[in-house]
Amino acid sequence: MPVYENRHLLRLLLSPQEQAQQFVEYCRSHHVLTRGLCRIGTTTRGGMRGLIANKDIRKDENVVMLSVRACLHPATALKNKTFFSIFPSNEANKYFLQPNFVENSRVADRSIIRHNQFLLASYMTYLILRNDMNEGAQALKYINFMPRSEGDFEQLISNMNGSLDTAEVCRIAQSSIASHFGVSQAEIRPLLQWSLSMIFSRMAPIDHRWTLRQAFSDTPFENSFDVKGPNDDKNLVKEPIAFLCPVIDMCNHSEHENVALMVPEQTPTSHEPVICLRSLRDIEKGEELTMTYGGSPTELRVIWGMQQVF
Fold first, then answer.
1. Minimal CA–CA distance to 194: which of 291, 96, 133, 127?
2. Which of 58, 72, 165, 225 could hold 212 in an S-S bridge, CB 3.0 to 4.6 Å?
3. Domain-embedded: residue 219
């Protein structure tokens, strides 16, 4: 069990049934659509949760569909002025409002943590501490459904701790959040570790220009995803941004994937981007929906704690 599970600020006072009910409410209010094709259930992998086909699914069906508004991503944090104001303005501008923020700049040389990932983790930490369902479009209902004890993130946390200890932006953020809520930095650290672990293990890398432009609207980066030169891909950016997508993020890894993340192209009749989980082949009722995370064996072991590849 991860060490952060023993820290009191991460403990939930909700029953599993209450967590599930709140998550269902979040998905309904944010129009996360499954059309009854799948459900979250217990898999054959030692009791781990995952996505299970609720009925036979044909190839090329959109099993899950959701809009950008249903996701958590760095722009979600940027748009919450109450949260963003807890950082000293000079530091906020220096670390979170520079062009390289959307180019996946790292919090320190050789660190695995990116500035935009760290801002999202700080926002998740803020919401957990605030514990207000009206804050952040009820995102806490989604965050509270994320597992507090599943997964083996010890090696990932060990790799992150150096940056959390030494990177200036990490030290400033921990100090600012601790001061804002009147708690110690030692109590903040497990929340950041857990939030970063959720981001690394559950993120969907979104590289679609239209989707990112929509997500970052009304932020200083609204125009950062426009095509800048003749060599730029018209539809895709070079550096994908980490999104947390409800329901889709329950999909476990397998080298024999049967679904994949898709973002349909913009058309003249499109109103807003949609992120989809699409079937790659016919899937039988009761079969687990899995995707390939795309990491090397080392990444699978470090980030997801996988000792074997399914």
1. 127
2. 225
3. yes
Write down the residue that tokens 């809520």 correspond to. Answer: 181
pLDDT of 267: 62
Q: Is residue 309 part of a domain?
A: no
The rounded distance, in Å, linking the Cα atoms of 125 and 142 is 13
Alpha-carbon gap, residue 78 to 97, rounded angstroms: 9
What values do phi and psi take at 97, rounded to 5? -120, 20
Question: If you search the block for the tokens 């929906």, which residue do you land on?
Answer: 289
Q: Which domain holds residue 141?
A: 8-32+49-304
Total tally of structural domains belonging to the chain: 1
pLDDT confidence of residue 221: 96
Indicate whether 43 belongs to any domain: no
Query: Where is 259: in which H helix or E strand?
Result: strand 259-262
Angle of helix 185-202 relative to helix 115-130, nearest 10 degrees, comes to 120
Q: What is the mean pLDDT of each run of 10 residues along the chain (310 residues)?
A: 53 88 94 95 82 96 95 95 92 93 93 94 94 68 86 82 94 95 92 93 91 95 92 91 95 90 74 91 96 65 46
Angle at 56 (CA atoms; ends 52, 59), nearest 5 degrees: 100
- Indicate which CATH number applies to the domain containing 130: 3.90.1410.10
Q: Structure tokens of 147?
A: 């597992």
d(CA 268, CA 82): 36
| Token pair for 309 | 């590849």
Q: Residue 159 domain-assigned?
A: yes
Q: Cβ-count burial of 59 within 10 angstroms (0-12 exposed, 13-18 middle, 19+ buried)? A: exposed
